[in-house]
Amino acid sequence: MTTPPRPDRTGGRGAAPPCLGLTGGIGSGKSEALAAFGRCGAATLSSDEAVHAIYGEAEVVAAVRDRFGDGVLDADGAVDRAALGPRAFAEEGGLAFLEGLVHGRVGAARREWISERLREDPPPPLLVCEVPVLFEAGLEAEFDAVIVVTASDEVRRQRVHARGQDFDQRRARQIAEDVKVARADRAFVNDGDVGDLRAWVADRYAEYAGRPCASAADE
User: Which pLDDT score, from 0 to 100, does residue 217 have?
Assistant: First the structure.
């Protein structure tokens, strides 16, 4: 992958810490990798947490209810994402509607989060943003490097089914894993022990942050 020149995110105040985009298919282990980066000392942003916050906005709740009905809200009137997901997949245009509603807001929240971290004194040594649809949305240029955590279809299927989701349905909406790996700056096949993933993350943290992983010293 040819990485474009890094944008000056500091307004001329000096070199910004690297900002990595972390992606991979469903069930690949992105969340575990993100947590490992956080233990190393990186500032991390979970896409799922950002989406959860957006679904709490009154305007978004109203739009979801108007499109899908009260059945996708819980007893408190909040969006029930466990109920919303299957409904969106089942209805024609349902997923496209949610993507149009949420993705732009997620991108704005991510850019604001990056700006806030860079205003810290000192800023974190490394920023890592989990972005499940990074390649699908053409967001490579927003990051200094893109790293992919992947796994075999068999392993990913087992993980996804264990949490009650339809693997084939969700995989069909994502770019193939081998394509993501080919387009990434760094990639890891997460078919083994979680310790292997954490060791790989520690190496990537040292590579991009220019310092050892903090948690590695404790292990």
Answer: 57
